[in-house]
Amino acid sequence: MTRVFNFSAGPAMLPTEVMEEAQAEFLDWHGTGMSIMEVSHRGKEFSVVAEEAEHDLRDLMGIPDNYKVLFLHGGASMQFSAIPLNLTQPGDTVDYFNTGVWSKKALTEAGRFANVNVVAEHTTAIPDPSTWQLSDNAKYVHYTPNETIGGLQFHFIPEVGDKPLIADMSSCILSEPLDVSRFGMIYAGAQKNIGPSGLGIVIVREDLIGHARPETPVLLDWKTQADNDSMYNTPPTYSWYMAGLVFKWLKRKGGLEAIGEVNRRKAKKLYDFIDSSDFYHNPVRPQDRSIMNVPFTLAKPELDQAFLKESDAAGLKYLKGHRLVGGMRASIYNAMPEEGVDALIAFMKDFERKYG
């Protein structure tokens, strides 16, 4: 079969060699006569998978020993509730940046449990730090380093004093090197750079565990999950297994330094072409553009459907922009090969010549 280039924001493209590996051992995992989906999560077979996945993730990201790594149900959105439930008491204040759809969802949910102060608000440029309104008494500061829908990215880690910094890294985790020690907690849904949907990864500093409100649902209590090695109940075992394969693939590729260079090169190619054209436009301030999600519009919006129909026929899938913003969006996560970006640019050039 011929593989297409899948530009979906998530569930997203996975590395072909990872899927081939999973396919080869699907029915008989390591000579057990069973699929990895069939083995007990508490058995020795899956214990190896879980331990290796955590070890490889720690190695890739340089996660310090005083952080717990949790593999949980519910993706990132489950943590929108878990964060204030674990880190605040009724009446506490929390700080949130509002830079797009996902940060807005996170702060809206936090508002059910705490008083939310919006530090800064903008969707096409990162506000200047001199304008930030940080609270003196905030229990934590939350931001979304990469807005999947709007294509806005922080290319620096915010300085927030001694407050724990919390980051939803769903669409940028593992895309480039990161100093984990600067954060109190990092969380991410798996379905972009990690593996299949349904899995959420939480990296949380140990001193932030064990303070959940009494009414916190048991599965949202980080202490419960940490004390049970993410297995208080049956975890999403196949997603966990696939994530482990992706971690090994990243290590074979040279780790986050190497993949970061590729990602920056892919993004630069696409942005350079868009900026050179009067037919396409990206709304984000250049220095704040995402290297993972590239939204763009056509000079003639009436051509949107033709663009989508013809790009789909050319094997360039899921380029339609999010329903809230329209236009187009190319998500170019780790698994998107450079030739996929080249193919997209070639198509965009041809389309412009045809309709421009």
Q: In which range does the helix fraction lie? A: 25-40%
The total count of helices amounts to: 9
Write down the overall geometry: globular
Distance between the termini: 34 Å
- Structurally, the number of domains stands at 2
Structural class: alpha/beta
Family: Belongs to the class-V pyridoxal-phosphate-dependent aminotransferase family. SerC subfamily.
Binding site for L-glutamate: 42
Domain Aminotransferase class V: 4-344
GO molecular function: O-phospho-L-serine:2-oxoglutarate aminotransferase activity; pyridoxal phosphate binding
Protein model, in words:
This protein has 356 residues and is an alpha/beta fold. The chain folds into two domains: 17-252, 3-Layer(aba) Sandwich (Aspartate Aminotransferase, domain 2); 254-355, Aspartate Aminotransferase, domain 1 (Alpha-Beta Complex). The protein has nine helices and 14 strands. The chain has helices spanning 16-24, 44-61, 77-87, 101-110, 222-227, 237-252, 255-276, 304-313, 338-355, and strands spanning 5-6, 67-73, 93-98, 115-121, 141-143, 146-147, 152-153, 165-168, 185-189, 199-205, 280-281, 293-298, 316-317, 328-331. The strands form four sheets. Strands 2-10-9-8-5-3-4 form a seven-stranded mixed β-sheet. A three-stranded antiparallel β-sheet has the order 11-12-14, covered by helices on one side. Helix 4 (101-110) links the parallel strand 3 (93-98) and strand 4 (115-121). Helix 2 packs across helix 6 (237-252), helix 3 packs parallel to helix 4 and helix 7 (255-276) runs parallel beside helix 9. The chain is globular. The relative contact order is 0.17. The model has no long low-confidence stretch (mean pLDDT 97). Its cofactor is pyridoxal 5'-phosphate. This is Phosphoserine aminotransferase. Homodimer.
